Amino acid sequence: MSLGAGSMNLFLPAIERLSRLPGKALVAMSGVGNGLLLLVGWMAGQRRGGFGGWLPFSVGVALTAVLVIFALRRHQLESRLDAYSEAAIERYNRLMNPPRNAGEISAAAGEGVVIDQDGVVIPGPNSEAMRQEAELLKSRDRQRAAEVEAAIRKTTFMPRLEAAQRAAIAAAGGVEKVPHLKGDLRWTILSAGITLVSLPFIGFLIFVALLLWL
I need a labelling partner for 7 at 20 to 30 A (CA). Which of 109, 112, 149, 195 fits? Predict the structure, then answer.
C-alpha cells in the first residue's frame, strides 16, 4: 500500500482520539496497572530475589518508561491540536468577516474600486480574482512539493508514515500551518500501541508477582 500526499487523513482520526479522552483513559488505566505491577513486583523481588523474582518489577519499569513517553507526547499533541483548531477558527472568522480598508469599496462582486481625495472613482483590478489565482498557484506548488516528499522513502522504521507526515506538512505550506504534525508521530503511535497491548500482559505479570510474593 502506498501512502501519498493526502494519506495523513487516514491517520488523523486516530491521532485525534489519542490526544483526547481515549488517550487520557489509556494513560490512566496503564498508570494504575503499572503502579500495581511495580508495587507487587518490588515485594516479590524482595521476597524471592534472583532473576525470576525481580523480573515482574523490571518489566514494570520498562513499561512505565514507555507510558511516560506516551503520556508526554499525548499531552504535547493535545496542546498542538488545540492551537491548530484555534488558528483554523480564526482563519474562518476572517474569511467570513473580511476587513474593509479605508478608501476602498466593492462596486461589484469580486471587483474593487478606489476613491481618490477628490471623490473620483478610479477603477481598480479584480483583486478577488487575482487573490484566488495566487492561492491556486500556491496550492499547486504545495501539492507538487507534497508529492515529492511522499515519493522519498528513508531507511527508517515506519517509512510510509514518516513520508506521509512530511508530505502533509509540505501540502499545508509548512509545519507552522499544522503544529500538530510538528513532532514525529511515529513515536507517539508506537508508544501508544505498546501501552495498549501491554495492558493484559501487565495483568498477567501482577498475578505472577502475587504468586511469588505470597
Answer: 195
Check: CB of residue 29 under 8 Å from CB of residue 195: no
Q: What is the pTM of this model?
A: 0.72
Taking residue 197's Cβ as centre, other Cβ atoms within 10 Å add up to 9
pLDDT less than 70: residues of the chain: 1-12, 95, 98-130
Handedness of CA 162, 163, 169, 172 (dihedral sign): negative
**Cα–Cα dist 206/200, whole Å:** 10
Strands of the 111-115 sheet, one edge to the other = 104-108, 111-115, 121-123
- The residue among 165, 200, 193 whose CA lies nearest residue 73 is 193
> E strand or H helix at 115, and its extent?
strand 111-115
Alpha-carbon distance of 195 to 69, in angstroms, equals 10
DSSP track, 141-154: HHHHHHHHHHH---
pLDDT of residue 87: 73
Place of cell 518489577: 57
Q: Tell me how far the alpha carbon of residue 118 is from its chain's centroid.
A: 54
Q: Contact, 103 vs 120, CB < 8 A?
A: no
Q: Which long-range contacts (CB under 8 A, 24 or more apart) does 185-189 make?
A: 185/11, 185/15, 185/161, 186/157, 186/158, 186/161, 186/162, 187/69, 187/73, 188/15, 188/18, 188/70, 188/73, 188/74, 188/77, 189/11, 189/14, 189/15, 189/18, 189/158, 189/161
